[in-house]
Design goal:
The complex is a heterodimer of chains A (about 750) and B (about 160). Chain A is α+β, with helices and mostly antiparallel strands and about 750 residues long. Among the domains of chain A are: about 150 residues, Aldehyde oxidase/xanthine dehydrogenase, molybdopterin binding domain (Aldehyde Oxidoreductase, domain 4), CATH 3.30.365; about 220 residues, Aldehyde oxidase/xanthine dehydrogenase, molybdopterin binding domain (Aldehyde Oxidoreductase, domain 4), CATH 3.30.365. Chain A is about 25% helix and about 25% strand. In chain A, the strands form 8 sheets. A 7-stranded mixed β-sheet of chain A has the order 3-7-1-15-12-13-14, with helices on both faces. Chain A has a 5-stranded mixed β-sheet with strand order 9-19-18-17-10. A 4-stranded mixed β-sheet of chain A has the order 20-28-29-30, sandwiched between helices. Chain B is built from 5 helices and 5 strands; from the N terminus they run E-E-H-E-E-E-H-H-H-H. The radius of gyration of chain B is 16 Å and the shape is globular. The chains are: A alpha+beta (about 750), B alpha+beta (about 160).
Chain lengths: ~750, ~160
C-alpha cells in the first residue's frame, strides 16, 4: 500500500520568498560584499605550468613593495597530517585538501595556487604577485584520462597505489581506485539477447559555472575568536576544513554565511578561507579574497571528463537481459572523481537481472574536480540512455515503452544495493507519453530525444530553532545557506505545523555559533532534511504551547489539541474553554515558564530517490552544425512540491546546465597543459537566446519517510539532458552522437562523415 | 599616482569621488560608493552581472572606467525601486520566482528595465536577445522571460 498524499494548507503554496525583496533591490550581501574597517585585499599567485616541481619561492621583493602587508606560501601552513576531515557530505582527505589549497612541493595543474599576497588595494596585491619569484622544474604532464592510465604516463603522485585491486599494486600509477560490482551473470544475459548494442561515449570536463566567484573575508583574533564571512554551500563544513588545516579548535572560528551566488556542488569545499585567515594572522588586519573568473575556471572544481563504455542486450520484445558499463573519470590532480556514484546510478532506473559496472578514478594534471549536481550521474546516463535509444530503434519499439517495460518500481533492488520503497519513475514515463509534446509533429531537420535520470538524494544531520516572539510572531533559524529559495520552503512547513499564516514567520540563516551543526546545502537534501528539522522544531513549539494551555485550563496535556494556530480542548469532555491562540500564549510566556523556543537536531533518514524523464526537440543547421533546442519538457517526481515554482525552477535550471554540457561547454587544454578557455566568452554557457521555454510536469508520488512526502529535487534534472539532447540530434542527423559537447565543428565533421 | 576627481549622477543624486585611473566603474560603485548591489561575475563583459544604465544605455560597468562617468547619468539596481514600491519588473521577478541564488538578478533587472523603458511590448524573442548578455546559471531563463513579459503587460496597463 502506497502512502497517500497529505492534505496541506500552506505546503504547496507559491508564496514570495522571504529574502526576495533583498535580492531584487541589491541589498542582499553576497561573499564579496562584506567590508571591514582596515580590510586588506588579497590575491593568489597560481602556477602557469601543468606539472612542475617548486624548487624555490622568493617573496622578498613582493614583501618590500609599498602597501604589501603579508605574503604566504605553502611553507606558512601547519604541516599536513594524513587524516580525514568532515566535508559536510563526506570525509575529505586533509593532505589533499591542504595541498590543493596551496601547493607544497609540486604544482599539479595550470592554476594551482602557490602563494598569496595581502595589500592595501587589489591593484597593489596584483603588482606584488608579479614580484614573487618561483623557480619551477618543469615535469612531463598528462591531461587526458586514458593517457593518464597508461603504464608510461607521467606520475602525479609517487605514493598512489590503486585501491580496490587485489592484491594492491606495488607500482604507483595515476589510477587512484578501481571499483566493481554487479548482479547475475552478464554472459548468460547477453546470450539471451536478440540485440546487443555496444558503444564508447566521451564527455568533456565542465564547470559548475556559478555566476558568483568564490569570495571570503577573514579576521584573525589572537584570543581564539576568529571570524570568516564567505559564500558557501555549508559554513559548518568550511569551519571543519579551515580549522583542521590551521590546527584550530572549531569553537575558535565562527563562520558567517553570506548569501551564495550559485554553487551546484562547487562551493562545498575550500579554496580561500584558510589562506585569508593566515594572511589576517600575519598582517593583523582583516582580509578579503575574491577570485577572478579566470581563477574560478583554472583553480576551482569542474566535474570529470569521462569515457564510458556501455553494452546492453535486449530481447525483441523489449526486455533488457544484460548491461555492462566501464567508466573512466578524471579526478583532476587529486583522487576523488565521482566514479562511484557514476557506477551506482548507471542502471538505477531499470530492473536488470544481469549487470556489471566497473569504474576507475584517475588523476591527471587538471584542477581537482568538485561536486557538480548529481556528481557522476549525467555521464553514465548519457551512455546508458543513448544505448537504450539505439536498442529501441533496432527493435522498433517506442523508447518510452522500452523504458516502461524495464522500469524500476517499488520492491526493485537496484544494482547498487538499495531496495526501492515507493518511487515515481513509472509515473514520469507515463506522464511523458501522455504529454502533447511527445506526439507533436517535428519540422524539417528536427529530431526528438527522450532520456531518463535517477539520483539518490540524501538526508543527514540537520538542526532548526524556532523562537516564538512575545507578540506571537515567529522566527525560524535555519542552519543552511539558501541557494535557491529554501527559506520559503522552511517557512511554509513551519506555517503548516504551527497553523499560522507564513507572513507571521521570519527566517534567518544562523552562523556556526548561533545554531547547531548541519550538513551541506547539497545532495538535494535541504528541503527534505532541514525541512524535517523545521517540522520537528515546530512540533516542539506546539507541544510546549499545548502544555501551557493545559496548565491554564488545569487539564491533562492529552486534553489539549492544536489546530488552526490555537490550543483547543480535545473534546467536550475536557471542558468548555475558549481557544488560546499562539499569540495569546506568547503574550503570557513570562508567567508560564519563559519564552517558547522550539529546537530540533536530527539525522534525517529515508530521503526518497528521485527520477525524471525528459523530452527534447532539436533543430540542426546542417550548413553550420549549430544545434538549437526548440522544445523541451522535463518531468520529475518531487514527492511533494513544497513551493512548486522553485521545484520548477530547479528542473528548468538543471535542463539548461545539461543543454550547455551537451552542446557547448568543455575545458580546452593546449599542448602545454594550460587551460585555453578560462572565461565565459570561450567557455560558453547557455544564454537567454539559446533556450526555449522549458515546460515542466511535477509528478507527486509521496516519499513515505517525510511528513509531507517530500523528495529532493535539485539534482535529478541535470541527469537526463545530456542523453535527451544527444538522442534528439542523433535522430535529426541519423547518426549516433558518442561525444560531448556536440559543438558545431564536431557535428559538422560527423554530418560530413 | 594622483587620483582623478569625478562628478557624476548616480540614481538621480549628484556624487563626487576620487578614483584611480585604472579603476572600473564597477570598482567605484562597489568600493568607493558602497553600492554593492551591482555584482562582479567576470570583469570581462561576458556575464552582465554588473549591468548599469548610463545615459539610458545598458553598460557592463566592468568595461567602463570610473573616470568616464564624469557628467553622466548612472542608474544602478539600488535606484530601481521607489521608497514605497518596487518597479514592476522587480515585483514580477518575485511573483514568478525568477531568481534562485539572486546573484545575477540585479544585472537582469537593470537590463530588463532598460528594455522596458524603450519597448513596453517586446516579443519573447526580443526579450531573449536583449537579455542574451546576462548569464543566469540557476533558472534556465524561463521564469525570467515570463517575468519580463508580465512586467511589460503591467506597465502597459494590460
Amino acid at each position: 500500500m502506497g502512502q497517500e498524499p497529505v492534505e496541506t494548507k500552506w505546503v504547496g503554496k507559491r508564496i514570495v520568498r522571504p529574502d526576495g525583496v533583498d535580492k531584487v533591490t541589491g541589498r542582499a550581501n553576497f561573499g564579496a560584499d562584506m567590508n571591514l574597517p582596515g580590510m586588506l585585499e588579497a590575491k593568489i599567485l597560481r602556477s602557469p605550468h601543468a606539472h612542475a616541481r617548486i624548487k624555490k619561492i622568493d617573496t622578498s621583493k613582493a614583501e618590500a613593495l609599498k602597501g604589501v602587508h603579508a605574503v604566504v606560501t605553502g611553507a606558512d601552513f601547519p604541516e599536513l597530517k594524513a587524516a580525514s576531515v568532515d566535508g559536510g557530505e563526506a570525509q575529505v582527505n586533509l593532505k589533499d585538501l591542504g595541498e590543493n589549497l596551496m601547493a607544497r612541493d609540486k604544482a599539479l595543474y595550470d592554476g594551482h595556487a602557490v602563494a598569496a599576497v595581502a595589500a592595501t588595494s587589489a591593484s597593489i596585491a596584483n603588482d606584488a604577485l608579479d614580484l614573487i619569484e618561483v623557480e619551477y622544474e618543469l615535469l612531463p604532464h598528462v591531461i587526458d584520462v586514458e593517457a593518464a592510465m597508461k603504464d608510461d604516463a607521467p606520475l602525479l603522485h609517487d605514493d598512489m597505489f590503486t585501491s580496490g585491486v587485489e592484491p594492491q599494486p606495488k607500482k604507483p600509477s595515476n589510477i587512484a581506485a578501481r571499483m566493481e560490482f554487479g548482479a547475475g551473470d552478464t554472459a548468460k544475459g547477453f546470450a539471451e539477447a536478440d540485440v546487443i548494442v555496444e558503444r564508447t561515449f566521451r564527455t568533456a570536463a565542465t564547470h559548475q559555472g556559478y555566476i558568483e566567484p568564490h569570495a571570503a573575508v577573514a579576521e584573525w583574533t589572537e584570543d581564539g575568536q576568529s571570524r570568516i564571512w564567505c559564500s558557501s554551500q555549508g559554513h559548518f563544513a568550511i569551519r571543519s576544513m579551515t580549522t583542521a588545516l590551521l590546527d584550530m579548535e572549531e569553537a575558535e572560528l565562527r563562520v558567517m554565511p553570506a548569501e551564495i551566488g550559485g554553487g551546484f556542488g562547487g562551493k562545498t569545499t575550500i579554496y580561500l578561507e584558510p589562506v585569508a585567515l593566515l594572511l589576517s594572522k600575519k598582517s593583523g588586519r582583516p582580509i578579503r579574497i575574491v577570485m577572478s573568473r579566470e581563477e574560478v575556471f583554472r583553480g576551482s572544481g569542474p566535474t570529470s571528463g569521462s569515457v564510458v563504455k556501455t553494452k546492453i542486450g535486449a530481447t525483441n520484445d523489449g526486455k533488457i537481459t544484460a548491461g555492462e558499463v566501464e567508466l573512466k573519470y578524471e579526478a583532476g590532480a587529486y583522487a576523488g572523481s565521482p566514479a562511484m556514484p557514476g557506477c551506482m546510478t548507471a542502471f538505477a532506473c531499470y530492473d536488470i537481472e544481469n549487470a556489471k559496472v566497473v569504474g576507475y578514478d584517475v588523476v591527471s594534471n587538471r584542477p581537482k574536480c568538485a561536486a557538480y549536481r548529481a556528481p557522476g550521474a549525467p555521464m553514465t546516463a548519457f551512455a546508458v540512455e543513448s544505448v537504450l535509444d539505439e536498442i529501441s530503434e533496432k527493435i522498433k519499439m517506442d523508447p518510452v515503452e522500452l523504458r516502461m517495460k524495464n522500469a524500476a518500481k517499488e520492491g526493485t533492488r537496484a544494482l547498487y544495493g538499495a531496495k526501492f520503497k515507493q518511487i515515481g519513475f513509472e509515473e514520469t514515463l507515463k506522464a511523458a507519453k501522455d504529454h502533447p509534446h511527445y506526439s507533436a509533429p517535428l519540422g524539417p531537420n528536427q529530431g526528438r530525444g527522450i532520456a531518463c535520470g535517477f539520483w539518490f538524494n540524501i538526508g543527514g544531520e540537520s538542526t532548526a530553532n524556532i523562537n516564538v516572539n512575545p507578540d506571537g510572531s515567529v522566527t525560524v533559524v535555519s542552519p543552511n545557506p539558501d541557494i535557491g529559495g529554501s527559506r520559503a520552503s522552511m517557512v511554509l512547513m513551519a506555517a503548516e505545523v504551527l497553523g499560522i499564516d507564513p507572513e507571521k514567520i521570519r527566517i534567518t540563516i544562523g552562523d556556526t555559533a548561533s545554531i547547531g551543526y548541519s550538513g551541506l546545502t547539497g545532495g538535494s537534501r535541504v528541503t527534505f532534511a532541514v525541512g524535517m528539522a523545521v517540522v520537528e522544531a515546530a512540533k516542539d513549539v506546539v507541544k510546549q504551547l499545548c502544555e501551557r494551555a493545559a496548565k491554564i485550563w488545569e487539564v491533562d496535556f492529552e486534553g489539549v489539541e492544536w489546530r488552526d494556530g490555537a490550543a483547543h480542548p480535545a473534546s467536550t469532555n475536557v471542558g468548555d474553554f475558549d481557544p488560546l491562540t499562539l499569540g495569546d500564549l506568547a503574550a503570557q510566556a513570562g508567567k508560564l515558564g519563559g519564552t517558547v523556543v522550539g529546537a530540533s537536531s536530527i539525522n534525517a533518514r529515508g530521503a526518497g530517490p528521485g527520477f525524471g524523464t525528459h523530452i527534447c526537440d532539436v533543430e540542426v543547421d546542417k550548413e553550420t552544425g549549430r544545434v538549437d533546442v526548440v522544445r523541451y519538457t522535463a518531468i520529475q517526481d518531487a514527492g511533494k512540491a513544497v513551493h512548486p515554482s522553485y521545484v520548477e525552477g530547479q528542473m528548468q535550471g538543471g535542463v539548461a546546465q545539461g543543454v550547455g554540457w551537451a552542446l557547448n561547454e568543455e575545458y580546452i587544454y593546449n599542448d602545454d597543459g594550460q587551460l585555453e578557455n578560462p572565461g565565459f566568452l570561450d567557455y560558453r554557457v547557455p544564454v537567454t537566446s539559446d533556450m526555449p521555454m522549458i515546460d515542466t510536469v511535477i509528478v507527486e508520488v509521496p516519499n513515505p519517510f517525510h511528513p509531507y512526502g517530500v523528495r529532493g529535487v535539485g539534482e535529478v534534472p541535470i541527469v537526463p539532458p545530456l542523453a535527451a539532447v544527444a538522442n534528439a540530434v542523433s535522430h535529426a542527423v541519423e547518426k549516433r552522437m558518442e561525444q560531448l559537447p556536440i559543438s558545431p565543428p564536431r557535428l559538422l565533421s560527423i554530418i560530413d562523415g | 599616482m594622483s587620483k582623478i576627481h569625478v562628478t557624476t549622477s548616480v540614481n538621480g543624486e549628484e556624487v563626487e569621488y576620487l578614483c584611480e585611473a585604472q579603476q572600473t566603474m564597477l570598482d567605484v560603485l562597489r568600493d568607493e560608493l558602497g553600492l554593492t548591489g551591482t555584482k562582479e561575475g567576470c570583469s570581462t563583459g561576458d556575464c552582465g552581472a554588473c549591468s548599469v544604465i548610463v545615459d539610458g544605455d545598458v553598460v557592463c560597468s566592468c568595461l567602463m572606467l570610473g573616470a568616464e562617468a564624469e557628467g553622466r547619468n548612472v542608474e544602478t539596481i539600488e535606484g530601481l525601486a521607489a521608497p514605497d514600491h518596487l518597479h514592476p519588473v522587480q515585483k514580477q521577478f518575485l511573483e514568478h520566482a525568477a531568481l534562485q541564488c539572486g546573484f545575477c538578478t540585479p544585472g537582469f533587472l537593470v537590463a530588463a528595465k532598460a528594455l522596458l523603458d524603450r519597448n513596453q511590448n517586446p516579443t519573447e524573442t526580443e526579450i531573449r536577445y536583449w537579455l542574451a548578455g546576462n548569464l543566469c546559471r540557476c533558472t534556465g531563463y524561463d521564469k525570467i522571460v515570463r517575468a519580463v513579459q508580465d512586467a511589460a503587460a503591467e506597465m502597459r496597463g494590460a
